[in-house]
Amino acid sequence: MMRRTDAARELGGFVREHRTDGSRRLRLAGILLVVGAVGTALGVPVAIASVGTTDGAPELAGLLLGVGLVGLGLGVWRLIQARRTREQCFDVHERGLTHRVAGNATLIPWADIERIGSASAEDGRPLAEARGAGFGFAIELRDARKIRVDTFTEDARELAETIHRAVSLGQFPQGRGRRP
Question: Which segments cross the bilayer (predicted)?
Answer without folding.
Answer: 26-48, 60-80
